[in-house]
Request: fold
Amino acid sequence: MRARPRRLTMILAGAMALARAVQGPHSASANEEQNAEASASIERAEQAEAQGEFDRAEADYRQAEAAAPETAQSARAAARLAWLRERAEGDFKPLARLERVRRDPDRASDPAEIDALADEVERFPPGQVRIEARVFVAEALRGRLGRPEAAIAQWRAVADDPLADKLTQRLSSHEIVEALLAAGHLDEAASEARARQRRLEPRFVGEVIRLVRRRLIRLGARFELGTFAVAVAIAVGRSSWGSGGALRDIARALRHVAPLAVAFCLYVAVVGGWLAFRFEAGSATPFLALGASALPITLAARAWGAAGSKRAPARLARAVLSAASILAAAFLVLDAVDPRYLDGFDL
Reply:
């Protein structure tokens, strides 16, 4: 009883194998024809795209997708169809205009072409092509043409376009601030960074705000050094007016303090520079500049002390102003030589 079902199974399996063997060549031949037809349609579609005939390309991609369903050619055609459908506004005319410039290196670097495209973009219907065209124009203006201020309007339009995806809006917001910084509009850049901070990285917003703060400190440091120089000049001038003895006292005080001042400034320059070079793989230049800037301030402070009042309030005021001058000079040196050192102090 058990041999009969097994024999029946073997007979059915043999019949199915025979059927596949008979039909196989015809099926393979049909698949090859479908694949060939799909490949030809894709080739025609790509040629149409290259010529800017996107409506014809769309029809050929559809034909390729239908000719060989569930194949690599079909997936390839479907991907290009999706790309075209996202950019079909205006019967592909805006896309054709954009691609005519974008695919031609000479036109893409021609200021007249970029300006003409920027003017036409304003008349494009809302959609993906208008967004991409504005991004293309903005990148060309800021990069190849060196006109960052002209690019700001395009970046702003993209960032505020409700049809733009979140990533594009974030990148555009970042570019707005970068372009304003490149154009030297620090206050406006900080204002944009604060207004668009939800689309920007907190670290980037903090860096922009730090630049504003650094500018204020820079102005304050210059004012402080100017005040110090004027105060020293007035004190020395008053003390030495008509009195050679006062000048000799100032010179004697400077001779006494000079070796110590030089030694201290050399210590700051050499040891600080060596530590920066050895342990931080940085540059010794900032510390050399710090030592060089500290020496004249130290000598000027000593001259002021020798020429000024000996009362306690006056001595305290000189000490505070002299110390502030050293800090102001240090800030200006680091700001000019290597601002990265200021980042550690959140300046």
Q: What stands out?
A: Residues 1-6, 12-26 have pLDDT under 50 and may be disordered.
